[in-house]
Amino acid sequence: MAQQQQWKWAKDIDRLNEVEKLKLEKDGLDVIPDIEKYAQTGFESIPEEEFARFKWAGLYLQRPKSDGYFMMRVRIPTGVLNSRQVRVLAEVARDYGRGLIDVTTRQAVQYHWLRIENIPDIFRRLNEVGLYSYEACGDCPRNIVGNPLAGIDPYELIDTRPIVSELEKTFLLNKEFSNLPRKYKISVSANIHNAGHAQINDVAFTPAIKEIDGERVVGFHVWVGGGLSNRPHLAQQLDLFVRPEQVVDVAVGITKVFRDYGYREKRHRARLKFLVADWGPEKFLQVLTELIGPYPSRGEDQLKEWNGGYFTGVHPQKQEGLCYVGLNIPVGRTSAEEFFQLADLADKYGSGSVRTVNTQNVIIPDVPRDRVDDLLKEPLLERLTPYPKTFVGHAVSCTGNEFCNLALTETKKLMHRTVEYLDSRIDLDVPIRLHVNGCPNSCGQQQIADIGLLGGKLKTSAGMVEAYTVSVGGHLNGKGRFNTQLKGRVEANDVPRVLESLVLFYKNERQPGESFSEFVDRVGVAAFQERLDEALAKAGTQ
């Protein structure tokens, strides 16, 4: 345990969980050069304990583990790509991943079907264009999410791309921060509509203004302790104001607090959210101040109504005469062929840039207004349409048990089938955000959805079947609110019809201009429980 003396938490090794002991024996980043060796000696040569460290290379074993395929995530800080990078991502999927590409809820790209012998070449191809899978997973700072419109956004206070770039340089492959108690998620956005989903991240920076020495200074407020999974916590604001040039120092300080004081005895209590919940924001700020020095108190919060992270359609940029075109990727699943076409369209109509969005969608920016109509006629935009129907346009899904070893249920096909059913039967003029997770880890972020589905199993007369709990009323306006889970489980085959009854309840009983979450507040969760009970009873008789 070479690093034992380096870290203060390593003094009492017996109290550490088994993963912590594994990390003390060998840092997660040290597995990256070893992958070259395993690529030569084959999958069977990889020691079992190494697979836990593979996460630091951005790799998980795909389901079923014994088949020797890997899932890989690729970091895309704040979602910004150039067309060359998009083509390389497409080439990797075509050559090694059966042409499959998923866009994730953290603006990353995810592959499946990768073999160990191909991983070194994938690393090389990605690295040549400035892309990395390193630390896209593991107990370390993961992909930095934020405003996908950074630099072009009429609703941003400042361009956050330089800040995100400095954060990426600071944290990526830095062994000072590669051994954290658990995964660590950072969000940076100056968009007034909370494009970076601040409240569900470990640390987040959101736009603020403070008068200092008679000058109105644009900067950030800081949130800590957010996170989902089976014990979700909403992040809390610290009482400090941070200038743009101070963001990196503050982020480093918060990360050190987590590294040195975060819990390492039980994995299920190791996220930063538990430390913040126990300490409270006041004590957390006190400890942080001992590291980074005093900062001004909070200023004026600039966050307005949350837009859910949706940017589909044609919209003006802050640059005169230019537009961005937001495209819907149904449930986040696309292909190498479509990525090649995205790169071509970005070069032909825009500036060669493509942006990924935390709602699993993409954006083509910098399109001259007089060229928008021609772009809209391109064949790719028939499927990746900027004008999706209501339900498919606001649907989010995790990977599900098609590939994920943790998932209990299938998700993407279920969600696709559900939204097609709803769009064919209900005409609705406002969005209802539908999210599904196949397990409690919440990659599909179901807790912040208008209607969230969580997969599990249900015992029936025909045996165990896939089923889902239903939750209603989540959002990230203001401080945010997680949705409330209703009682009962819905068999997978019944999900479309059951959700139809809940949506029609809203459509028929809402007041003018009333959003779904406002409707939940007004009528109460009990009213939705009653509708669900009726729908379940009806499903049982069919």
TrEMBL record:
Record domain Nitrite/sulphite reductase 4Fe-4S: where: 137-290, 395-537
Protein name: Nitrite/sulfite reductase
Family indicated by similarity: Belongs to the nitrite and sulfite reductase 4Fe-4S domain family.
Location of the Nitrite/Sulfite reductase ferredoxin-like domain: 65-129, 315-379
InterPro entries named among the record's database cross-references: NIR_SIR_4Fe-4S, NiRdtase/SiRdtase_haem-b_fer, Nit/Sulf_reduc_fer-like_dom_sf, NO2/SO3_Rdtase_4Fe4S_dom, NO2/SO3_Rdtase_4Fe4S_sf, NO2/SO3_Rdtase_FeS/sirohaem_BS
UniProt cross-references to SUPFAM superfamilies, sorted A to Z: Nitrite and sulphite reductase 4Fe-4S domain-like (SSF56014), Nitrite/Sulfite reductase N-terminal domain-like (SSF55124)
Superkingdom of source: Bacteria
The entry's keywords: 4Fe-4S, Heme, Iron, Iron-sulfur, Metal-binding, Oxidoreductase
